[in-house]
Amino acid sequence: MPSVPATLTASLDNRYRIEREIGEGGMATVYLAEDLKHQRMVAIKVLRPELAAAIGVDRFLAEIKTTAALHHPHILPLHDSCQDASCLYYVMPYVEGESLRQRLTREKQLPLDEALRITREVADALQYAHGRGVIHRDIKPENILLEGGHALLADFGIARAVSAACRDNEKLTQVGMAVGTPTYMSPEQAAADPDVDGRSDLYSLASVLYEMLVGEPPFTGATHEAILVQRFTQTPPHAIVKRPSVPVYLDRALVRSLARLPGDRFPTVERFAAALVPNSSEGSALAEDKSVAVLPFTSMSADPDSEYFGDGIAEEIINALGRLPGLRVAARASAFAFRGKADDLKGIATQLGVRTVLEGSVRDAGNRVRVTAQLVDVDTGFQLWSERYDRELTDIFAIQDEIATAIAKKFEVTLGGSDAGPLVQPGTTNLKAYDLYLRGRALLHRRGASLQAAIEAFEEAVAIDPDYAPALAGLARALMLSAFWGMVEPGEVLGRASEAAAHALRSDAQLGEAHAAAALVAFAARSDRLEAQAEWEKAIALAQDADADTRISRAAFDLGYARADFTAAAREISAALETDPLSSSGYAGLTVMYRSGGNVQAARTAARRALELDPESLYAHWAVLYSLSGGDAIDEARRVGREARAKFGRHPWLLMGESVNLPPGADRSEAVARYEELAARSRTDYVQPSVLCAMAASAGRLEESASWLIRALEIRDSLMLALIAQFADLTPVLQRPEVREALRRVNWRPPTRH
To answer: Measuring CA to CA, how many Å separate 150 from each of 115, 116, 139, 269, 526?
Structure first.
């Protein structure tokens, strides 16, 4: 037997006789010992000396007293503890069985009924402890002991005291001594939130159940950091994908319990345990989940360019259903990622976290149109509803409304009373204007070079129907994006965008897209943060969960660029991605917030996900370059830069992405060369002065950077407002008197970083 520390031997005071060491972890060593007085075997957990010194006797005893008061059949009790500051330990019964970890190591996956029984027993213990104000903080298979076929939850111990000691003593955290195991740790605990509640234990318990069912934890990685980053950047995984025999209600209970935000989980472990019983109210609610994904309708027309028409039908239905209370609708970007893959509806539904899928097709010939649609329950494979419409093309609006209404009736959800009007309200009765609007909207979603074509399509639609609110809102958004992306000088479009947004609101004050467009105009064209905030709030309230893009925009511009609260912005975007998990632009936006806030590893994970979802996206490539900035990933940044330039040429944003956040003392010759290249191009072509400002600062030319910044503010280059919040290189430029005066003139105060 390894030598027992002398301090421990002295502290035992002839009450216990050590037999052997039976375990060792980051915080403590566990010994098997005999309780001489009671003639029984016990386990003695001895804290590491540096941790014992940091906690102190008083804090240790206060925590032990609380834990010792817990009496529950599924909680391993505390027998004794030591009051000697030189050696802190506590004594527990020795369990003859094995830990859940040992069983999982041997069997990998457990039978469903055993996994659920163990989970319910641990949940019962946790609910008892939570009711007495005690949070475990380290739920993992190692701390769940199996004896006589039942679970015993061990190591309540001194979790709260260790957490407090780690917050007070940075050295403890640096050597890896922190409460909680990254594989099972909740996001809020990983973020060092001192006020975690029972929902943190719930997250960890759900992670353990997932492993019992699947054979591995929900998130895995080569390092602890990689695991934690996944937890902040990826949506909860589905156990049913890796083990198809997992019931759907159970899979949904796990997904809810593994939600990134505590408020999206079950409120208590008791509710979680109830959801594990299929005929309970909780389990039945999950089994009867009202959720749907609307796939793009397949175009059966001879015209190969008519795909946008089927997309438009699906998107109108998504927007209509998204306003129905009680019905969850997968966001457009995620649903449309499965274009042409309707042969695997169960896989699609699993990835989107929905119970049903609506698919269809559209064929137009002359003045006639045929639309087919079917709603499928993926659990059973049965059609819940189907219909075929052979109508005049002018009936397309009525067809969309009939489909949406049929689905609403099937789910027993309604928008309002009998006088609420049609669910689908296209905003025009002119079929030509509607067709142009659908074309413009499809082009707008593609971004990039398609923006100009989108603008032209929207303008044609508005020329036909001047009060067509959705087309006006689309026009305003496309114009604003063309300026933001540096395609045109802002003076050419801001006035038109402002008028289009205002006209859209006059035409339909209940249109969420109109308020979203008005928010962008207020923020970028007028630097009016308060008006922008109000408009975003209205847009989100009207669109509900279907429009994740609006929530992402609000988080980036309002929380990120206006307030520099990048942590809050990342949290809001992460929440939006829960409803739109396959949005490349959403992950690119998350990248920018993480990187601007200094969370480099999380930014890189999010950026790679954005590029994986859309390899043709300029924004995704820019996000990867920005995430790699900082000088520690030069080779990868250069490789990505070469690949991006091969696709998009020497776009100013790409050149900027390779030139920012250079560390002190870095070679800036390439940054200087890129800046001089763009400065020369600006003499003949429009190059965003905001980009030139950032690159001049990176090149060390602060006076030129100040001049470009002032120029950007003068022409209302809205990207400048974003870069001010993002790039530390601009800090000395912002202190210059002429820059401060220019900012004052446009009513913009550089945000203070949180």
So the answer is: 11, 12, 16, 18, 65
The per-residue pLDDT for range 380-411, each reduced to its tens digit, is 677 888 889 898 888 888 888 888 888 888 87
Task: Show me where the domains of the chain are located.
Answer: 6-93, 98-287, 291-413, 650-754
- Token pair belonging to 658: 């390779």
- A 10 A CB-CB count for 143 gives 23
Specify the fold of 291-413: Rossmann fold (3.40.50)
β pairing state of 291-294 and 356-365: parallel
CA dist 637 to 603, 616, 626, Å? 14, 17, 9
What pLDDT, in 10s, does the model give residues 265-318? 999 999 999 988 876 666 666 656 788 999 999 988 767 677 888 888 888 888
Query: What pLDDT is recorded for position 214?
Result: 94
Say how far apart CA 51 and CA 88 lie, in whole Å.
Answer: 9
Q: What secondary structure letter does DSSP report for 682?
A: T
pTM equals: 0.71
Architecture of the 6-93 domain: 2-Layer Sandwich (3.30)
Assess contact for 204 and 254: CB atoms under 8 A: no
Phi, psi of 375 (to 5 degrees): -105, 125
Give Cα 729 to chain centroid, integer Å. 28
pLDDT in tens, 556-589: 999 998 888 998 999 889 888 877 888 899 999 9
pLDDT digits (tens, 9 = 90+) for 80-125: 888 676 688 888 888 888 899 999 999 999 999 999 999 999 999 9
Whether 340 and 230 have beta carbons less than 8 Å apart is answered as no
The hierarchical CATH code for the domain 98-287 is 1.10.510.10
**Could you give the 3-state DSSP secondary structure of residue 534?**
helix
> What is the dihedral angle through the alpha carbons of 454, 460, 463, 464, rounded to the nearest 10 degrees?
-120
C-alpha to C-alpha distances, 394 to 201, 226, 316, 431, nearest whole angstrom: 56, 54, 16, 6
DSSP string, 287-310: HT--EEEEPPPEE-SS-TTTHHHH
pLDDT at 444: 87
